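Rotation project, supervised by the postdoc (A.L.). Task for the rotation student: set up a whole-complex structure prediction and record inputs and outputs verbatim in this book. Inputs entered:
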Amino acid sequence: MAETAKLTLGDKTYELPIHVGTENERSIDITNLRAETGYITHDPGYGNTGSCLSAITFIDGEKGILRYRGIPIEELAEKSTFLEVAYLLIVGNLPKAGELSTFTESIRRHTMIHEDFKAFFGALPKDAHPMASCSAAVGALSTFYPDSLDPRDQRQVEISIHRTLAKFPTLAAYAYKHSIGQPFMYPKNSLDYVGNFLYMMFGNPCEEYEVDPVIEKAIDLLLILHADHEQNCSTSSVRLVGSSKVNIFGAISAGINALWGPLHGGANQQVIEMLAAIRDEGVTGREFVERAKTRNDTSRLMGFGHRVYKNFDPRAKIIKKACFDVLDKLGVHSKMLEIAVELEEIALKDDYFVERKLYPNVDFYSGVIYNAIGTPSNMFTALFALGRMPGWIAQWSELHRDTEFKIGRPRQTYIGEPLTAYTPIAER
Ligand code: SDX
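Outputs recorded:
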């Protein structure tokens, strides 16, 4: 007999099916709750609500575990590459050598964007936030490829996936170049995925640009660590928008906007600005941590806390180590890294953070590396989006293969006015 949950409402008891996950997580299936009981559930922020059965990423927030398709993030960080992880997330298994080279070559051949995107970016203000430019540009991709927008046509889906993965680095780099008044750099097919992005970001037509292998490896690692994270805010946005059967570009554009928020991916920009403010204002780490604890003060300890991780975010541990390795190899001293380490040490011993199980998350240290390689802070979240692109694509694809697929449409409990007659303006 399959497991069930019993729900008693008044004098009636209902049995609800239970789903048991690979790692023995359990979920109560309420698909028929309203039809059988007339009740709906209430769960602000969906902290207790599963939106899907998914085979892509597993997180155990209590144990600080993160796996892509069952493979621990620590192993992928050490042994894999970003495009291999993208294949793993999207296709579902690690590629054989031939499969990886075919995938890599296809991505390489789709990095160029339509020439009219120059006019598109040219119409934006110089100080446009890159996340605004990127979400608009990805949405606009649908206007250039009207022949490949059907989310249920496998051939159109495959070419759209490759175009999205391949063109986002170019679009992000164009957003940056536009903001600093430098010419756009066409992608160079002789470079690898990350090297090409660095070239388009930091190269210029007046001189040769040499990709620094230390920086290329560091960014590749950061992209792996950001690649997916199950049903976070932006991925849930991609799924909800995607559930209307809009094309992939429209769904991903929604995800970019959700990620931009300071409570989500936008936190990486907030962290570096927080560290710079502490450095420049001469505030001590202890003083800042005290401020972060007071409810009326808006200065949260950005990069700390997580809806799911109530233990260390495994990504933060890997990124912290990478900070020291990369800065050492680059011969860069970072006062902000020192401040970050001090804040972490203070917070992890402070009852306020311990009681609330607040630990460094993926955003706490990532900006130190981005900053060390010369990336402006308003591009940090665009780099988060670059990393998360395969995860959004994989989750969007799984949504459309889901036998339980239906348009997302949550319910509500109405607490407004009872039936009310219209009052003519003369009587108001
Ligand atoms: C990402 O979901 C994902 O997987 C996201 C992500 C991914 O890969 O996609 O991991 C990426 O978005 C990481 C999170 C980045 N955001 C930040 O670093 C912003 C700072 N953190 C918080 O705002 C907060 O921790 C959240 C948004 C991350 C989580 O919010 P929750 O789960 O809704 O928790 P909460 O805001 O209700 O906080 C619980 C308590 C509150 O205090 P009390 O009301 O109990 O007194 O903890 C406090 C909060 O005030 N708190 C913090 C804090 N984070 C939570 N206090 C000070 N500093 C913080 N950073």
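Student's summary: The mean pLDDT is 96.
Supervisor addendum: The longest strand covers residues 12-20.
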